[in-house]
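Researcher: Going back to the complex we discussed earlier. I've cleaned up the inputs and rechecked each line, so this should be the final set. Can you rerun the prediction on the complete assembly and write out the structure?
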Amino acid sequence: MKVHNWLRWLVFILIALIMNFPIIATLMTAFKDPSEVMRNPSLWPETWSLANFATVFTISDRLNIYGYLWNSAVAAFIGAVLPILVAFPMAWAMSRRGYGRAILFPLIVNIRALPLIIFAIPLYMVYSTTGLLDTRLGLGLILAIVNLPLTLLLLVNAIAEVPLELEEAARVDGARLGRMIFRIVLPLCRPAFVTTFVFGFITGWNEFLFGLMLTTRDAVPVTVGASFFFASSGGGVQWGVAASVMVVAALPPLLLGVIMYRRITGSMVAGAVKG
Amino acid sequence: MKPKSSIENAVLASPLVIFLLAMLGFPVVLSVIYGFSEARFETIASPTFNGLANFRQVVADPAFWQASWFSLRFGVTTALLQCALGLFLAVYLAPLVRRHAWIVAILIIPMVVAPAMVGLMYRLVLHEFVGPLPYYLNLIFGSSPSFLNIANVFKTVVIVETLQWTPFAFLLFLTAYEAIPKEMREAAAVDGTRPWRMFWRIEFPLMFPTLFAAFFVRFIDGFRVFDNIYTLVGPGPGGSTTSLSIYIYETFLRRGEIGKAMAAAILLFISAFLLLALAQQMMRRRG
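Model: Rerun complete. Updated structure for the full complex:
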């Protein structure tokens, strides 16, 4: 028994190191002194330095990390909140009355299985005529579509868990439907809102294709902005700086994910099994 | 009574339906118009109807079939590898996870990093001068393969995708494994069933529906892959890593063939739709 667990720990540590290797390697490279990066490809920095991060956070005429981070934050926020707002009333009707269960529900839930490129091209044209191209709002709106399926699924499940007696009691007291939904059901769904928000925010922050196609300068998200650091100023890639920008871009969803891992794993499993 | 609640339902549905129509209704109409029209960026406002010409062009393009074949192969290979590795990890590490739940948090880290970032990170990791992987391979074996040349690039992107998304399969299997009723294992143990036999005779069949779901989700994700491959190698040497998504992207933005890109997107939509319907049919039949 003891020997067995020792082996299990070994397997865990090995697989954790292998799967997280790109992240570990990037983090270590980011802390190397810029002059050391080309000389020392090993994982361990000879001298620890923050010089690469300083370069990343210096605004140049081409690169503005603050702008990219802000764009990602705003677009991911819109993309996480908007689907909750539009889907919540419908989720109640679906959960309690089975309304839209036959067609609308599977239609929306299946959106997430479609290749995103299918939406990207027509949206590019719609956006270019409506002025949404290269705006944070435009990016946020399409991220809301990306997040809508799982949001609806999780909200429908959450509402089904609300005790029916509470709703009936409110109805007996003469509360109108809208009032009952917003005063009784909505507060009880708060944990589901947090889960869907966190999941939606991470998905939105990590999205790349729409950022690549629908933004050019003003609304570039950090996933796309980070790749600009690779194609920088003439003389090849500055790997230390590139590593630092990746650390900065990956950190917010990574921290959120590790802190909230229970909620995230729960919604991933629910999303896959019920879909 | 009835008319009142149907009005209520319509009101409750309206935000969602309006949002969907605004965001997807119009683009769908545009897709159809441009799919059947000749259009380039210079003439984007005035597409001219040309029937099935775009579709004929797509179907006659060897690059389209190469991309389809890549996506299919990539989707199947990565889904299989992820399910196999994920299943092993879930079953083998389950006793540890029961006592140390934080293990899961460590193992899901790859999934919460943007695939586009992971692709960029591997550019560094695999780089022949600054990359740690070639450095250590050289140190230990005296040589290191060139990961991104035409002979190795498919294997490389398959491994990159597998290492990032195996945690997803792991999670699903872990949940399914822990959901197996204790009594079933105990009853089998009383009968003297050995662990290996227990797994194949009892646990594996009980987890089979999850296996199917995991395979399907991972296949779909692999089939539509864009981000990590695009940031790591782009279309790849000789177009060897051009997935369907990358093919459509390149046709649209690089070559400006709007109608052709749209036609390819419609074909992709139809094939994705058929795959989805097929999978759901199979799942329903399994109950």
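Model: Worth noting: Residues 123 and 145 of chain A are 12 Å apart (CA to CA).
Researcher: Good, that matches what I expected from the previous run.
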